[in-house]
Design brief:
The chain is α/β, with parallel strands linked by helices. The chain contains 9 helices and 10 strands. Strands 4-1-5 form a 3-stranded parallel sheet, sandwiched between helices. Strands 6-9-8 form a 3-stranded antiparallel sheet. A two-stranded parallel ribbon has the order 2-3. Helix 1 crosses helix 3, helix 4 (about 135-145) runs parallel beside helix 9 (about 220-230) and helix 6 (about 175-190) runs antiparallel to helix 7. The radius of gyration is 17 Å and the shape is globular. It starts with 6 loop residues before the first helix and ends in a 5-residue tail after the last strand.
Length: about 260
C-alpha cells in the first residue's frame, strides 16, 4: 500500500483501472482471507451500508491505524447474495461488520478514491471456518449467477503466504523453493479446463509443499471461491512475482471485452 514502486502495487492499479473502465460493475461482492465465519458450516455476510474499517493487524506504525477508505454497502445486493446461497443449501447469517484490511488495503490501491474511485456498493462475504477446498469451490458456484447481473466477484488472498519464513528471505527477493513450486502448481490448477479445475485445485492442498506455502490455508481459499464462481469460464494468471516466502500472483476468470 505504501511501496508505490513495488511491481504488485502497479499491477493492482492496472487491474483496478480495467474493472472501472471496462467491466463497469454495478456492485462488488468480495471474499477476503481475513474473514472466516465463526460457526461451522455457515457463511456470514455484511448487510450494513455504513461501517468503519477494521484494522485487523498488530504492531504496525500508528499511521496504519488512521487509514481511511470511503465505501458503502448495499442491503439489496447482500440480500441477492443470501438468496443465491440459500437456494444452494448454504446457511448464511447477516451481520454488521466493517471491511477488513484484506479488502481495504488492496482496494485503496486498485480503486484509489482520488484517481480511480469504484463508486459502487461493496458487500463483503466471509469464508467458511473450515479449510475444505470443495466447500469453498461450491460457495463460489452458489454466487456465480450474480455475474450475469453485472455484480463483480473479487477474491482477496495470496498465491503463497508464509509470514513465518520472512526472516529467511529478509533483504533477498529470491523466492524460496516452495514459493516457486507452489506458485507454478497453482497456475496449472487454476488454468486447467473448467471440467477438471475443482479436482485439480483440491489436490493443491495435498501437495508436500502446501503447508510451507500456506501454514494455514486462509489466504489460499479465496481463489477457490473465485474459481467456483467462474463456471465455464477459463482461468488465467495475469501476472506473478515470487518474492521470498510470498507470491503476489493475480488471476482473472473469464475475459474482459473492450
Amino acid at each position: 500500500m505504501y511501496e508505490h514502486d513495488h511491481p504488485a502495487y502497479r499491477k493492482l492499479k492496472e487491474i483496478g483501472k480495467e474493472i472501472t473502465t471496462k467491466v463497469k460493475p454495478a456492485a462488488v461482492v468480495v471474499f477476503s482471507a481475513h474473514w472466516q465465519a465463526k460457526q461451522a458450516g455457515q457463511i456470514e455476510i455484511n448487510t450494513a451500508e455504513n461501517t468503519d474499517l477494521i484494522y485487523d493487524f498488530y504492531g504496525f506504525p500508528g499511521h496504519y491505524y488512521k487509514e481511511k477508505y470511503p465505501n458503502i454497502g448495499s442491503n439489496e445486493v447482500a440480500n441477492r447474495v443470501m438468496e443465491k446461497m440459500s437456494a444452494q443449501g448454504i446457511s448464511v447469517k447477516p451481520v454488521h461488520r466493517g471491511l477488513d484490511h484484506g479488502v481495504w488495503a488492496s482496494f485503496k490501491v486498485a480503486f484509489d478514491p482520488e484517481e480511480n474511485p469504484l463508486n459502487v456498493p461493496i458487500v463483503q462475504v466471509s469464508l467458511f471456518s473450515s479449510e475444505d477446498p470443495d466447500q469453498h469451490y461450491r460457495l463460489g458456484q452458489a454466487v456465480s449467477a450474480l455475474r450475469s447481473e453485472n455484480i463483480q466477484i473479487i477474491v482477496s488472498g495470496m498465491a503463497v503466504h508464509n509470514l513465518r519464513d520472512l526472516r529467511f528471505s529478509a533483504g533477498n527477493a529470491s523466492p524460496l523453493p516452495y514459493t516457486a513450486s507452489f506458485d507454478d502448481a497453482l497456475r496449472d490448477a487454476a488454468e486447467s479446463s473448467p471440467e477438471q479445475r475443482a479436482d485439480a485445485m483440491a489436490k493443491l492442498l495435498k501437495r508436500p509443499d502446501a503447508r510451507q506455502a500456506h501454514p494455514t490455508f486462509d489466504h489460499l481459499l479465496p481463489i477457490f471461491v473465485g474459481a467456483g464462481a467462474a463456471g465455464d469460464d477459463v482461468g488465467k494468471r495475469l501476472w506473478t512475482l515470487k518474492e521470498g516466502s510470498v507470491s503476489w500472483a493475480q488471476y482473472r476468470f473469464g475475459t474482459v471485452s473492450g
